[in-house]
Amino acid sequence: MKIASLEDDLDQARRIQQVLTTAGYACASYQQSRDLLAALRTENFDLVLLDWHLPDIDGDDVVRWLRANIGARIPVIFLTNRSSEDDLVEGLRAGADDYIVKPMRPLELLARVAALLRRSQIAEPVNDAFEVARYRIEPAARAISLDGAAVPLAPKEFELALLFFRNQGRLMSRDVLAECVWNREIPATSRTLDTHLSNIRQKLQLRPEHGVRLTSSYALGYRLELISPSEDNLGSPP
Fold first, then answer.
1. Distance, CA of 164 to CA of 169 (rounded, Å)
2. Rounded to whole angstroms, how far apart are CA atoms 17 and 71?
């Protein structure tokens, strides 16, 4: 897997490259946005890491160029000092798939990179049944079961749940969810999305004891995370 890293701080760039190469990835490091854009025109990358503030072209403009000229096939992660919700929403709307707030934590970086690479390399057949933790999802039958028991879902609830199960680990903004499930923008004042999210949480029992967790930040979006048994037991009494 080949990763492009855009970071103008040389020490940070070297650290990112060291973390990725030690984990077995090939990493090409760039300090100028124009150099990365030139490389994207001629080379194939499996993932791009972007800083936000750069001396020539800011990272949000880089990701807009990438989406306009290359498309959605390359996952993009912002690695940035900008941590306000407004900034992060702007980055996601520009076309980024995820973000990591500096200072960089190597294990978090590797986990996010691995999750995005898995999704980009393995395309789930549209109608093939698949399993996530203790859930079985059958797109053709529009059915989801937990431990073998079918969970009744309304049509839009099923579509929303299917979207999360197919994109486990991926942060998805409210705009993306609305576009994918309802094919339109949902006003911020509407409770439609929130009601459907609450319904699938309750009906599907999206809890750590079932191997998943649906995390949320109202402004940034939502993420369905896989929970290992060891993680689930961390908070349990002896």
1. 9
2. 25
- Alpha carbons 98 and 198: distance in angstroms, whole number: 23
SS3 label, residue 17: helix
Give the pLDDT mean for 173-183: 79
Distances (CA, A) of 183 to 18, 61, 175: 42, 26, 10
CA 24 to each of CA 1, 15, 16, 19: distance values in angstroms, whole numbers, following the listed order = 8, 14, 13, 9
> Within the chain, what is the greatest distance between any pair of CA atoms?
56
Q: How do residues 51-66 score in pLDDT, each as one tens digit?
A: 988 889 988 899 989 8
Separation CA 206–CA 83 (nearest Å): 27
159 in Cβ contact with 197 (< 8 Å): no
Q: CB–CB of 161/211 below 8 Å? A: no
Q: In the structure encoding, which two tokens stand for residue 13, read together?
A: 């760039």
Q: Spell 71-91 as b/e; 16+ CB within 10 A means b.
A: eeebbbbbbbebeeeebbbeb
Instruction: Express each pLDDT in 123-156 by its tens digit.
Output: 445 678 999 999 999 998 999 999 999 999 999 9
**Percent of all residues in the chain with a pLDDT value above 90, rounded to a whole number:** 48
- Per-residue pLDDT reduced to its tens digit, 11-34: 999 999 999 999 999 999 999 999
Amino acid letter at 223? Answer: R
Q: Which of 218, 175, 154, 147 is nearest to 162 (CA)?
A: 154
Cis peptide before 75 (omega within 30 of 0): no
pTM, to two decimals: 0.58
